[in-house]
Amino acid sequence: MDKKTLILNSAVTLFAQRGYHQTTIQDIADEAGIAKGGIYFYFKSKEELLLSVVSEYYDRLFNQTVDTANRYLHAPKEGLVQQVMNHFQDAGSHSNMIALFTRGQIDVNAEVRSVLLDMRGKFLVWFRDQVIAVYGPRIEPYAFDLAALLTSLVREYMSFILVNGAALPVRGLGEAIVARVDDAARGVIRSQEPPMLTTAFMKTVLPTLDIREGADASRQLSRAIDALVARIGAEVDADEDATTARQAADVMKEEAAKPKPRRVVLEGMLTLLERMGGDATAGKELEEARRLVATFES
Question: What is the pTM of this model?
Answer without folding.
Answer: 0.69
